[in-house]
Amino acid sequence: MTPRTAGGGTPDAQDAPDTPDAPDASGAGAGAGARDASDASDASDASNAPAVEGLDGAPEDGGDSGTAASGDAPGRSRRPPALTTDTARPEGGGRAAAGGAPAPARQWPLLTVLGLAALGLLVVGTDLFPQAFRVGTILVGVALLTGAGLRRALPSVGMLAVRSRFTDMVTYGVMGGLIVLLALMVQPAPWVKIPFLEDILHLTIT
Known about the structure:
Elements: H1 11-15, H2 25-48, H3 65-70, H4 103-106, H5 108-126, H6 132-153, H7 165-185, H8 195-205
């Protein structure tokens, strides 16, 4: 027989360690229901909130903002920007021939000028006749004058165009004219004599 204690229980029952109480099932169910209700209310608030605008003032959810931004804004200035980030094509810098033509044909104005200048330098360098220096220098000047004429006559001259049409004409014309003039006045036995230019040259040297 098992001995009984004064309290009426068995020794095993009294010596057993205390175990933590199990969570109340009703309390856990109530907490889960409260959390679900809170999540549902947060979701409804988020759906009713207005779209957040980005830094540029447009809504971040897309919509029609991309279409509106792609068009020109009303009242937008058409003046060129004060600071350019690339190289603009000069006036008349298009192809001098049709797009289907080979590259040399599209750049024939520039090749013509370069060909005349190269011929003049070749004449000067070979010195095949007594006036080779004068004739070769004149050819170089004529090449620049030809470039000025082509720049004036043709609407598009390809890579011969550097600046505006007026600037190119003045640059090519002045340089070509000066080269031809100096070639005609070169000593000895100049082909052209201009007294006041000779006096200025003598005063400059002396």
